Amino acid sequence: xxxxxxxxxxxxxxxxxxxxxxxxxxxxxxxxxxxxxxxxxxxxxxxxxxxxxxxxxxxxxxxxxxxxxxxxxxxxxxxxxxxxxxxxxxxxxxxxxxxxxxxxxxxxxxxxxxxxxxxxxxxxxxxxxxxxxxxxxxxxxxxxxxxxxxxxxxxxxxxxxxxxxxxxxxxxxxxxxxxxxx
Length: 182
What we know:
Blueprint: H1 5-72, H2 84-98, E1 101-107, E2 111-112, E3 117-127, H3 129-141, E4 146-154, E5 164-174
Antiparallel strand pairs: 1-3, 2-3, 3-5, 4-5
């Protein structure tokens, strides 16, 4: 069987066209499909993280809602203005209830901030441990927001029956800063 020259040319043309089709259409589309598959895999991977993030965001939103509910039900408050006399009366009443000895008050200058002001107060007194504990518990139970900055308790090691010497620095807050007039 003899192959004619025209048949060889036809076969070469068919092979050339097949090669051109493969190089011009099939290979680029195969590369494009591989690239799209990679992008899909990456998008699915990111979507998995985003779904996890939305679950954690949902959980975080629930936590925030619970905290807001707890805060709204809290008994503590930040007054609108400086109520130093009222605070000192409340503390004095608590000290009298605990029957502490030699109470001394010292107020510090008020520190004004952009949203609230801090009113520091120093206390010194002598008392037994149960009285100190009772006073601190009463401070903690006050409706006004108070933060104990420093607590120093000193005992006489030579005589354990002597009362403890107590120094407390506490701060309370009010929300409308009263800026001193020039």
